[in-house]
Specification:
The complex is a heterodimer.
Chain A lengths: L1 H19 L15 E3 L6 E3 L15 H16 L4 E3 L7 H11 L7 E6 L7 H12 L4 E6 L5 H13 L3 E7 L6 H10 L4 E5 L11 H8 L2 E5 L6 H6 L16 H10 L6 E2 L6 H9 L8 H13 L1
Parallel strand pairs in A: 3-4, 4-5, 5-6, 6-7, 7-8, 8-9
Antiparallel strand pairs in A: 1-2
Chain B lengths: L16 H15 L3 H16 L9 H22 L9 H21 L11 H23 L1 H4 L13 H15 L2 H24 L6 H19 L6
The chains are: A alpha/beta, B mainly alpha.
């Protein structure tokens, strides 16, 4: 009866969220599935918008906020989302994700993306196992070396886990443009499935070398901090969207930014973090409808730059 | 840390302001009604620093040190270790420092009797008394006073002996009154460091009251240096 319980629980959470929040946006929340892209190393399809957990899911043991996070996760899965990303660095986020997954009956569509973040390679396996227990999953789909900390030792562990069938994908992460030279070097020499970087309509350094390199090497790209932790969307809040935004199906700045990111040919998925059900719906809706072509992407970047 | 100069204060903030402030509400509810005896002990300290007592085997100075040490241990265990660490893993590294502060207070103040808490009209005495009174009476009111702007209720009040900021500020005040020489700096180090950490946290969150712990620390240091640059007495 697990399926029935899960279905009822998801319906209850979604109903509760719908009762207190604005009506859903057009797109994913109306039943249109989000666009997907293939993971280069396997061809497995991933919805192009995922869910990050940096800051937003670090709510400790606050029961009210834990339930709010579970409601965000319910709306995320309801709108067709799959990949949720976290890290041991993110405080209680792993535990809160595990709480949400348990409450939602462990959705089968989950694509679990975690990180290993410890300065000692010897401590990596124990940390990974602790993270797995927090999530309550049998194994992670993706494990990434967080910010390249002890990357040589951890990558050795992760590749061994992948070979043993304890892990499906291996990756590395950085954020806000840090250590890109080393990042590229690792990309050139290691058989990675994923790289995670910061990219958005104003932080575009990765367009020069890292994104082309990811395509050449057949690596998936996960984009973190698409809204600069809210700074970018707050800055654009008072500015008008261009009239031609409707041509790409963007009705908000968040959708405008997400569509810019995920329409890059090398990008696999963007992982915005949020504490709000209406925002997660808005984000997933950005994965539906028309996407900008290269000329429109240039126009989008120029428009924001001129504001 | 690689490329440390690229990090901003905000990059070290692991939680949102909402989570941080709700944490005090949850903590106060969890330890209620301990706030009442904590404030009562604070009031007793206030009486003793105005009128120090000496009983046959024990003086109020040593009891003040014991109460302060108990407050530091309690905050380390109940707040830092069990509460704050759930959203900030760095708190697990801070908690032992709070225990160390308690041990220093016990050793220097209670066992060796080197602290004498008698408020006088010197600069250090007045500043110390002001800091202690602030931590006991006014600091708990900061949350409800800014509530119209931040939506924080009285239930989120930060109370001496329960939360770290008022405990650290109270200790700075009492040490301004009662500690002298190199020992004072030894005992001031951890409360001062906490005030800086708290300022950094509040500042990164954009909290308007971030200046409070920094100002308290600054006053404690300035009053400590005052005798070297002028008269130590107001009268």
């Amino acid at each position: 009866m697990t399926t029935t319980r899960r279905t009822i629980l998801q319906a209850v959470l979604a109903t509760a969220a719908a009762a207190i929040l604005p009506p859903p946006l057009k797109g994913a929340a109306q039943g249109r599935p989000p666009a997907t892209k293939p993971i280069p190393s396997t061809g497995e399809a991933l919805p192009v918008v995922g869910l990050g957990s940096w800051i937003t899911f670090n709510v400790g043991d606050d029961p009210v906020l834990r339930d709010e996070c579970a409601a965000v996760m319910a709306a995320f899965f309801d709108a067709g989302g799959r990949i949720i990303d976290s890290s041991p660095m993110y405080g209680s986020s792993q535990d809160v994700i595990g709480y949400g997954l348990e409450k939602l009956g462990r959705p089968s569509r989950l694509f679990s993306a975690e990180k290993v973040w410890t300065s000692s390679g010897d401590n990596g396996p124990a940390q990974i196992e602790e993270s797995r227990r927090f999530w309550g999953v049998p194994r992670f789909d993706l494990l990434q070396v967080h910010n390249l900390v002890a990357w040589e030792e951890h990558l050795k562990t992760l590749f061994e886990m992948k070979a043993a069938g304890q892990l499906r994908y291996v990756g590395i992460t950085t954020s806000e443009g840090r250590r890109h030279d080393l990042f590229e070097e690792i990309m050139r020499t290691q058989p990675l499935d994923f790289v995670q970087i910061t990219y958005n309509v104003v932080d575009r350094e990765v367009e020069d070398r890292i994104l082309p390199l990811a395509r050449d090497r057949g690596m998936g790209v996960i984009v973190n901090r698409p809204f600069q932790q809210g700074v970018l969307t707050q800055r654009l809040e008072g500015e008008p969207l261009p009239e031609w935004a409707t041509e790409i199906g963007a009705s908000t700045w968040a959708q405008f930014i997400l569509k810019f990111i995920v329409s890059h040919p090398a990008v696999t998925v963007a992982i915005p973090a949020t504490t709000r059900v209406d925002h997660v719906r808005e984000n997933l809706a950005a994965a539906t409808g028309p996407m900008p072509d290269e000329a429109t992407r240039r126009r989008m970047a120029a428009y924001v730059q001129d504001l | 840390m690689p490329e440390w100069w690229t990090y901003r204060l905000e990059d070290f903030l692991l939680f949102s302001p909402r989570v941080y402030w709700r944490m005090f509400e949850l903590h106060n509810a969890a330890v209620w009604p301990l706030q009442i005896p904590a404030l009562a002990l604070g009031a007793i300290i206030l009486v003793w620093i105005v009128r120090p007592r000496q009983w046959p085997d024990l003086g109020s100075d040593r009891l003040v040190s014991i109460i302060l040490a108990a407050a530091w241990v309690w905050v380390a265990w109940s707040f830092l270790w069990n509460r704050y660490a759930t959203i900030n893993w760095a708190a697990t590294y801070v908690a032992p420092a709070f225990v160390l502060q308690a041990l220093l207070l016990l050793w220097i103040g209670s066992l060796r009797g080197r602290l004498h808490f008698a408020a006088d009209r010197t600069v250090r005495g007045v500043v110390g008394l002001a800091l202690f009174l602030y931590s006991l009476v006014l600091h708990p009111l900061v949350a409800p006073l800014v509530a119209p702007l931040a939506g924080r209720p009285i239930q989120a009040a930060e109370v001496f002996g329960i939360a770290p900021d008022p405990t650290a500020i109270a200790t700075l005040g009492l040490l301004s009154i009662g500690a002298g020489g190199a020992i004072a700096w030894l005992l001031l180090a951890i409360p001062l460091a906490w005030c800086v950490v708290s300022w950094a946290t509040l500042h990164a969150m954009g909290a308007s009251e971030s200046w409070i712990p920094l100002t308290a620390a600054g006053l404690a240091v300035l009053s400590r240096l005052w005798p070297r640059i002028g008269s130590g007495a107001l009268r």
